[in-house]
Structure formats: structure tokens, C-alpha cells
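Re: the request from the purification team.
They wanted to know what the chain is likely to look like in 3D before they choose a buffer screen. I agreed to run a prediction and write the result into the notebook, where they can find it.
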Amino acid sequence: MAKLRKAVATLRRARRIPRAQWVAHWRSRPIESDTVLYEATFGAGLVDSPYAIFRHLVDAPDLAHLRHVWVVADDERRRRAREHLASLGLHEPRVRVVGHRTPGYFRHLATAAFLVNNSTFPAEFGKRAGQTYVNTWHGTPLKAMGYDIPGGALGAANVIRNFLAADHLVSSGPYMTDTMYRRAYRLDGIAPGTVLEVGVPRTDVQVGVTDARRREVRERLAAGGAAVDGTRRTVLVAPTWRGEAFADPRLDADAVVGLVTGLREALDDDWQVLVKVHPVVHAQAGDLPSLRGVLVPADVPANEVLTITDHLVTDYSSILFDALADPGVPITFHVPDRSAYATARPLYLPAEELPGRVCETVEATAADVAAGGARAGVRHEWAARYAPFADGRATERLVDVVWRGRTPTVGRCTSLSERMHEGERVPRLLIHGGSLQRNGVTSSLIALLGHLDLDRLDVSIAWGPARRADPHAFAESIDDRIRLLPRVGGLNGPKRVVWSRRLLERLGAGGRLVPMPSLVRLLQEEWTRCFGSAQFDHVIDFGGYSPYWALLMSRGVAPEPVRSHSIWLHNDLAAEVASTAEHGRTRAHHLEQVFSLYDRYDRLVSVSEPLSRVNGRSLRRYAGGASFRSARNVIDDSRVRSLARVPLEEIGLAEDVVAALRDEGTVTFVTAGRLTHEKNQARLVRAAAATRAAGHDVTVVIMGSGPLADDLRALTVELGLERSVFLTGQVANPFPVVAAADYFALTSEHEGLPMVILEALALSTPVLTTQFSSVEGVVPPGCGLVVARDDESVARAMMGLVSERPGFTALDVDAYNATALEEFAAAVGLGDDLRTPAMPRPTGHT
């Protein structure tokens, strides 16, 4: 089965190679200065604000030199798009239509001087020098977006990536700027582009509509299969999509059909019904026979349909804000799943204040439509507050700014690139978080983030896909003000250069066959693809184990003005290479190649001063001009103590393990970590055997998984310890076990500053550990024992602890953390930005 999965993965990668080569080829070609590329909702058609901008540009005499390319998804829609363009007198070569994600698409995505999108470009997109990107977005938000959706931070990755690449973000006004751009997508303090608060271009068609224009809209609807009688009033039903993720949208077909049927039955013959669903669920709606003849084609803009609409029925769709452009269109809100919907997608504005009646039944909705709607006064207030620039000239203002270089006389251009606190600019940190596996590196990062002052620091976390990664658990463990920038997609570039990454991983930056100049150029493009034009003051590779990330975050790749580049050294790395090399060269190779990149950093930060001395002695030849620094790991004591309060019975342990931990007649030693030679849990097992042989009743609980799991189980059987040594496997929440134990044991060959020791001390559990090279200062005096790295010393210590039960003191966590945070600020150069170091703050997460 494993071979089959590997073969399938290989085939998938092989299928991506031709597309990657298209992208690489066209990204090497010159920018076409007169070309504009338009995309609306992944190729839905000639719709939304991109279409409004297009119509303005093709009609502008001073911009007649521009050539236009439209992205349209499928053959039928492309046929209809070309017919529509022909009806406007527009043909090739002035206007071209290409398919979504075709070779022609990637050509123009890479070479068009102007890019206009109402949603997002795909993972392959990385804006090039000479391109101008205008993101119009597709709606003013009423329901939660991005980070404001429960669990939505990870799903916002490609949206934020596009926003960071955009030169201009279009906004309907201050409400949209603050709610969506500043808040929902965490752009405040980092977005490099200009927010154009000039109104939404697509709403221009709703202002000053003529009878001739309405006839054109009806004809276009009829051509798409939605016949409309111009003598009857029209009620437009416009529900949004349902589902937890935009990548997996769903249409509540029964609800839509039931509403349409109910309206038709309840309203008199003067009314007719049209349905405009969200473009991402249009295909699902098109499969419903009961909607034939009333379903608005996906490629007919909703705003054009609003010009012939006499009453709008929606749920919490952003179309309500567009409808405010025409004061003559009443709105009724039909939300049968109101409580459930509000839980999944909370509203930014109270439902009770909406500019129309909120109805939960079809009967109530139909009655409100028949009565002509309600809350006209509220509607007027909403138009002034939430659609202040819906005057029919939003497109003109946008074009003036982007294509003519003018300053708008109505609205404003605003910047989100800097955030201020107490009159000073907030420094921006970009931190590569490592693999986000459940390990000590991730725990130490969570602890650090939990104590940084996020009023005075702007923090972004980047990471890439990794086996056994748990980004959801990570996201739930940190303050939601921290921006998450997971890597989306893969490297752009010729395959010969992309593949040379492997040479870097095998030979290092100094390898004769490694094309470092080409790799650096490739990674410079990758930086832009991942982070757009965002600028950071301090760039930190906190993971410290990946050659790819070590190069990406290094000096010469990240664009100026970065003040400091730091990389974390979490262990005695030379010892780790030697230990890993005994049991498999891949990890050792990767670490050695990370060493070869150290001279591209300013600061090499170990997690304790003794460890910094150890690494300084063994790795000095790689450092170049980089300085060795230290910053101890922070303890997230509030989170650890909260998790420790979970009952043992609720964390997935076997009954005999829980019983052993509850047994007051035995002394329990617990440990946690990956089951590897360097962690040497076998030493703890052998010491337990010797202790029991001497007549002492001890129990050992080993939490973790790894390559030595079977060997450790065999050892317990060999030593007759099946009922006194328990291997639990990976435990998602180990803290109740650590809190319940008498002692925490760590019998490693080498370590950095182990988070497991700090977390045990935060729970007042004394520590027994071996004397690895950087152990100095890890266990404060009186908090535990440090013994030699051999079975006999560990066994003697266990016997003494069991027989004598000495008293131990508790760690002063607050004082420790204050010092650790001062060390972090000094290590990465934050002392140059902050008058005083970042200090602990209460965290909202437990």
C-alpha cells in the first residue's frame, strides 16, 4: 500500500511538470506593458467589478492602446463571452478570451502589465516587477470572513497571499476597509498596496438606468435561458453559498427550490421570480429541473440583474450592500437557518439592524414582498454608511488612480502598511515556525508567541507542508492576532533550477555543483510568491532544520529593508548530526547543509547560553560574520496548567496506565519525546529495571512515538516490565500525565533547552535528567537532579528519589519568562526598535 501511495504521488508530480514549465517559460518573457488580464470568480465570465473596469477602459479614448484578455472557465461560457464581446464590437486582437489554468492563462498571468481580479489568482501566481495588480474583491462583508470565521485562519492563506501581492485593494468605504482588510484578513500593519476607498465599480450600472438598458439586460437573460416579462415585477432571490470552506461550497437545493416555489404560489401574477446563486455553486443549481427558466446565467452580472429587480430576497449575501445603490429596491432577508448560520458565520452587524425584515419562513418572506418591504428609513442610513460612494462613478475614480495616476476627489487612497502604537511604528516580524509537528520546537514557539506583546509587535508565522504536521492545533494554541502565512503551492522556475534544491540538500551552499546564484534568484521569486510585496523588519528561521527555509529566510533573498536575519539552533547540532548519522543520513545531511547557510545570517540563536557556547565551538567555521547569541525558551505556563487540569480518563490513555498513575503505592516517572536513539528512553527502562530489582516499586510511563517503539516494547518484555513500564504512543495532551507523576525524567544523549523540562517545572513536577552538553542552567537549583549519562547513574538517582523522597522547590516562572523575553528581544535586535524589551502579557488562549 505504501508503494502504491508513493507511485500515485509520483504520477501527480509528473502531471504538474508541464504546467510548471509553462509558468517558468512565460515568467522569463518580457512584461507586455499594454495588456490587461481580467479574472472574475475563477473564470465565471464577464462579470463583477472586473467587467465594469473593462467596459470603462475599452470606451476611454486615452486608453485605446490597451489590449485586453479575459479568463473564462469552460467552452460554453467562452462561446457566450465571445458572442457578447462581438455584440459590443470588440474582437481579437484587441480583446482575447482564454481558458482558466490553460497555457494561455499562465502566459498572460506572467506577462500582462495589469492584473484585475475579484477573488484570487492560483498558487502559481507570483507578481513580477512591472506588473500592477488590482484586487476588487467580490463583496462588502456582512458575514464573517477570513480569521473571523471559526477556524478560518488556515483557509485564508491564498487570499492573504493575493492581498499582499496587490498594488490596489478596492473598498466600498471605511466599513469594508476596517472590517475586511484590517480585521478579517489581518492586513493592518503589513499590506503594501493602497486601499482605494472609491466605491465598488460593479454598482455603477445600477445608477441612472435607462429603459433601453433594462431591455438589453432582459434580452441577455433570455439568451441564457431565463425569460423575463418586462410587464411584470421581478423578485430576485440571491442566496449565498453554504459550507465551511470556500473550496467546498454547497447549495441548499431544497431550501432554494422551496423558497422559489413558495414565492410563486403566494405572490399574484404581477410578480415573476429570478434566482441568482453564488458563482461557486451555479453548476449545482443548474442541475435542478425546478430552476430552469428562472436561474440567472453565471455570466450575467448580478448588478445588471438588479437593474430590473423590484424586490431583492437574500440571506446574508453581500449583494445587500450592492442593492443599496438603488433606493427603489426593497430587501427582505430569508434565513430559515438563522441560528445555525450565525454560529458558523457570525455577522459583523446585528441582524436586527438590517435594512429589511428578517424572515425565517417562506410565508413570512412572501408576505413581506407582497407588502413592499419595510425599514425604508434604516435602508437610507445604511446606504450613507455602508455604500457612501455608490454614485455611478466608482469605476472612473479607480481608473483615474490606476491608469491615469490621478488622486480621487471623492473617496480616498489609504495605506495599511504601517501600524502605530503610542506614536511609534510597530516592528514587523516574520517567523518560520518549522514543521508544526507536535514537538519541542513547536511547543517553544507557541510559548514564545503567547508572551509577546502584540500591541507593540506585528507577528507573521510561515511554514510549509510537512509530514505529521498539525497546523490546526497550532492555530488553536496562539493568539488570533498573529498572522498565519502557510506556504501555498510550489516553486516557480525551470525544473533544472528547482531540482538543484536537492543538490543544496546533499552538498550544501559551498558544493561545486550547487548553482547558488540561480537558486538565490529562484528563492527571491519564491519570496515574492509567498509574501508578495510585504516588508518585514526582522526575519527569523525559528525551525532551523530545513535547507529550503534556511535559504528562503536568509540575507540576500528577503528584500530590503530587513534589519536582522536570525536562525534558531535548538540543540547541540554537531552532536545531533553525529547521532543522526549513525541511524540514517538524510536528517544529518539536511542539518549539515543548513550549517552551510549560516554565513547568510546575522545572528545564530541557541536556546541557552551554555548551548550557544557549545554550538559556537563546533559550528564557528560555518558562521562567517554571523554572531552566536542565546535566548532561552519561554514557558507558556497558563496554557500548560490549563491543559493539565483535564482528567486523566479523558486524554485517551489505557485503563492500566491511568490506574498506575493513580496508584499511591508506587513512585511514577514519566517522560515524553520522540522514541529515538538520541532521546535514549531505553536508558530509563533499564534504570527502572535496576530500581525494581533493588526492591523499589516504580512505574515508568513513556509518551511518544518513533522508530524505536518496537525495540522499546521488546526491551520491556525482555526485562519483565510489562506491568510497570507503559508505552502510550503519542498523547495529544501529555500535561495531565506530567502533573500526576512524581517525577519527570529525561535521559537524552543531547538536547538544547528541552521544553518538556520547562513544562514539567511549570507544573511543579521535579525533574531527573542526564548531563547532556548544554544542561547547565536547564534545571534550576532545587528543582531536580542532573546525573551522568549512564544507566547506573540514572538508576542510583531513581533509587534515591524513591527511598528518600527529598523536597524540591518550585520554579519562579514569571521571573524566568521575563528574562527569557529580554533575551529574545536582544537576540533578534528588537532592542533597536523598542524602548524596552517585550514583556509578558495575559494571553487569551489556554
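For the purification team: The longest helix spans residues 2-27.
Please add any questions underneath this entry.
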